Recover the amino acids of this structure.
């Protein structure tokens, strides 16, 4: 560790990512968690867009965009890259970790030592600027110090269409600080609550949750259904046509809608709910909502699309997000089976221990040391 003592790491957030208790999305929450527990030898600074409101109590530098004639041709991506580059020159960063922006990593690699830059992917790269083609992805793999994915699903997506000579991305799953979670009561002590916690959008299956609960609740006296979330990860999330239509259906079914809640409140709710439902339609890159539910001890009912399959297989009830009656039947069967509820709760917590932040930090520190000494 003596070789890397005091090295400076710059963690670059996507340009619209919040970095505070009331604004952070999944990427920012994960990076705040890792930065707060950074291994000895590394000084971590988060770099992102200027923030509104409170930010996490961690070293943070705002990348202030400036208008110029050259930026007019490059657009917002070029302005943000230039702003980040100015911050990086002031930090004299030894390592640069770019999150979820392949094109930003490419631009920074033209200004800083490319072998000291790692690209961390949290979503499918095939839809991202700068990584839509196999050739573009291969070029980045050969140029950057590392490409890191949060799941094997994303690693496979990155390698799609590539030849055998392209370096395969590293896999560093998302993590939770299990020591910071609220106390988890036994399954028998939990509230008879079926909980949805996430973005209230079609991709996340929020409408399937409402319709399934409308079928299930009349068969489950004493049980309630609760929704936490909004269209965006912020208190002032706008109403959309989707959330408006869902509100009426949820009210008719007797589902409690709590709207946006910060991460602390979400984890508190998960720690009390007997069942958590993650009915995602889209190919989840990882499935952080499922990991949070399992870690909190809620019995998980989940689709197994994308990264959810490798995360939740064997520790959840698998559902088809578009089979509403099938979801309702799964909820009724689970709610009526205390032994299975308890078994799933324990299985989920056991699975979550493999994703605890100390292990993630160890693996991240090992990667950082490798990039510094290669």
């Amino acid at each position: 560790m003596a070789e890397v003592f005091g090295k400076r790491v710059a963690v670059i957030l996507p340009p619209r990512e919040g970095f505070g208790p009331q604004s952070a999305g999944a990427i920012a929450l994960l990076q705040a968690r890792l930065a707060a527990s950074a291994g000895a030898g590394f000084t971590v600074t988060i770099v992102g867009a200027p923030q509104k409101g409170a930010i996490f109590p961690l070293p943070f530098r705002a990348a202030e965009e400036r208008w110029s004639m050259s930026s007019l041709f490059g657009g917002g991506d070029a302005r943000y890259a230039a702003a980040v580059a100015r911050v990086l020159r002031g930090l004299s960063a030894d390592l640069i970790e770019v999150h979820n922006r392949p094109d930003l990593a490419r631009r920074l690699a033209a200004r800083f030592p490319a072998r000291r830059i790692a690209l961390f992917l949290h979503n499918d790269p095939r839809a991202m600027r700068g990584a839509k083609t196999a050739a573009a992805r291969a070029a980045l793999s050969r140029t950057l110090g590392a490409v890191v994915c949060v799941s094997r699903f994303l690693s496979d997506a990155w390698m799609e269409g590539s030849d055998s000579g392209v370096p395969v991305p590293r896999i560093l799953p998302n993590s939770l600080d299990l020591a910071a979670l609220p106390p988890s009561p036994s399954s028998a002590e939990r509230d008879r609550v079926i909980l949805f916690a996430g973005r209230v959008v079609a991709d996340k299956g929020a409408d399937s949750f409402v319709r399934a609960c409308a079928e299930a609740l009349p068969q489950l006296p004493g049980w309630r259904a609760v929704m936490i979330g909004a269209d965006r990860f912020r208190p002032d999330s706008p109403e959309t046509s989707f959330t408006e239509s869902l509100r009426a259906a949820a009210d008719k079914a007797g589902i409690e809608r709590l709207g946006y809640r910060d991460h602390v409140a979400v984890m508190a709710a998960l720690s009390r709910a007997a069942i958590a439902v993650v009915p995602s339609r889209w190919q989840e890159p990882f499935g952080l909502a499922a990991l949070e539910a399992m870690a909190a001890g809620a019995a998980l009912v989940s689709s197994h699309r994308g990264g959810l399959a490798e995360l939740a297989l064997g520790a959840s009830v698998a559902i088809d997000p578009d089979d509403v009656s099938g979801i309702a039947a799964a909820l009724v069967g689970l709610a009526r089976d205390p032994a299975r509820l308890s078994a799933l709760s324990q299985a989920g917590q056991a699975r979550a221990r493999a994703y605890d932040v100390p292990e993630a930090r160890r693996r991240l520190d090992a990667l950082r040391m490798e990039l510094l000494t290669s």
The chain has two domains: 2-176+356-369, 178-354. Residues 114 and 144 are 5 Å apart (CA to CA). The two ends are 14 Å apart (CA to CA).
